[in-house]
Amino acid sequence: MPATSTDVTAWLRDFRDKMKIWDILFRDDRGKNSQTLLALELRPDDRKKIIASLKTED
User: Fold this and answer.
1) What is the rounded CA–CA span in Å between residue 18 and residue 22?
2) Burial of 20 by CB count in 10 Å (0-12 exposed, 13-18 middle, 19+ buried)?
3) How distant, in Å, are the alpha carbons of 6, 19, 20, 38 from that of 23?
4) Cα separation of the two ends of the chain
5) Alpha-carbon span 24 to 34, nearest angstrom
6) What is the pLDDT of residues 9-53, one digit of tens each?
7) What per-residue confidence (pLDDT) applies to 45?
């Protein structure tokens, strides 16, 4: 059964709450992750901002 927009909204809200407490661990020790960030022209600090700004429609 696919998730509804209400499910996604609730999940994102819960995730943001947990992110405030526990933060996010990024695997920066893997070369492919660094290469992807470079290819996407993203700084490591941008990752958390992007994740925090996700909306249900995304």
Assistant:
1) 6
2) exposed
3) 24, 4, 6, 23
4) 19
5) 16
6) 999 999 999 999 999 998 888 888 889 999 999 988 899 999 999
7) 86
Joined tokens for residue 16:
């943001």
pLDDT at 3: 92
User: DSSP string of 1-58?
Assistant: -PPPHHHHHHHHHHHHHHHHHH-----TTSHHHHHHHHHTT--HHHHHHHHHT--TT-
The reported pLDDT for the residue numbered 57 is: 94
> Quick one: tokens of 52?
């925090």
